[in-house]
Each structure stands twice: as structure tokens, then as C-alpha cells.
Known about the structure:
Blueprint: H1 3-15, H2 34-42, H3 50-59, H4 67-83, H5 91-100, H6 108-127, H7 131-143, H8 149-156, H9 159-173, H10 187-198, H11 200-210
Helix pairs in contact: 1-6, 2-3, 5-7, 6-7, 7-9, 7-10, 9-11
Amino acid sequence: MSQQTQHLFAELYAAFAAVDKPRKIDGCRCCIDDKEVHVLLTKSLREISAEEMASYAGSALLTVGSPDDYRYFLPRILEIKMSVPAWWPDWEVLGRKLREARWETWSALERQAILQVFDRQLQLALEGNDGAEIDGLLCGLACAELDLAPHLSRVGADPARVLALYTWHANELEAGALANGFWSDAPQGATQLLAWFRSEKIGLIVLDACGVDLSLPPNSSP
């Protein structure tokens, strides 16, 4: 783990240090059993393993838990997600859960710490030209009801990044749609992303590299 990432995690935990540890976790015991709940309530937050956190993180705010306990566990959830990329829930789901937890009512320090995590993970995805990861993070931000404009500017700054994201969506874009079904949870963000693809700058990058004119109506031929 890089020093930058270690510092990021330290700031994340510090931002949420005043959040009280829950005394109980309500919810469906088919989704999280009593033993799992006991571990979450008795272990130190940073000592909870990815396996021990999995049931709660996936079911939180659906059939398990409340916004208050989710706020407490969120730093560890984000740390695990950054450390174990294949771990569920994905970034899109995390963004949706932030919205459901009404994170816009949290402190500015907490919100900034969360955004720093998303920003860092997006930067790593951009450096690797990982279209699927870039899209998942953009969708997560949109599900959290954030404006995508500054993040799309970062993607658009490098043609290789643009093409990575375009390739991920290419087949569906022909029909005027997006490849990731989670965009249905963020219709405003989906509209913003589609408009970005059709913008002159991005359209020229795709046209030059792939011979596809995104300005044409869906399923049209040049």
C-alpha cells in the first residue's frame, strides 16, 4: 500500500472519528446472522475483515441496518473496497447507499473524506485506462447525486481514457444506451454521460480512432 493511500485512509477514519459505534444492528437474519452482528459490534472497526463485513455491506439499508450504523461502518467499507477491488458491493452500489443514507446531511469533513476516496480510485482507474472501473466510479458518483462534469473533464483530458470508456459502452451506444445497468439508478447522470459522448471534443476522439460518429442518431449509418 502506497504512503498516499495510507494517508488517505488515516484521513478517512479521522473524519468519522466522532461517529458513535452502534449498540445494535437491526435487520433480516436471513441476510446477516447473529454471529456476524456480534463480530461487527465487538471488534475494533479497522480489525473487521472483508469476509466479516461482507454480509452487512451488501445488505445495508436494504434489509439490514440504518443510516446511523452505516455511517459508522463506512470508513472500513471504503477501505476494504479500495484494498480488495473484487469485493462486493461495487462502487455503483456504494454510491446508491450514500444517497439512501442521506450523506448530504453529514459533516463537510465526512463528505470530503468520501470524495477523496472516490477521486483516488478514479485516478487509479484513469492511469490504468480501465474502462469498466472508470464507468463504475462515475456511475457511483452519479448514484450519490453528484455532478459528473469535473470527473468527465478528467476523463476527457486524455484520448486513451476516452477510448477506454467508449469501448466499454460501444455496443450499447449504437442504440443510444449505456452498458452498465446501474445507470438506471442515476438517470440524470446517465443523460450527462450520453451528452458528453456526443460532445464535439469527445466525438472527434472516437471518430478519429474508431470511425464511429456519435453525433448521428442511434443505429444510423454515416
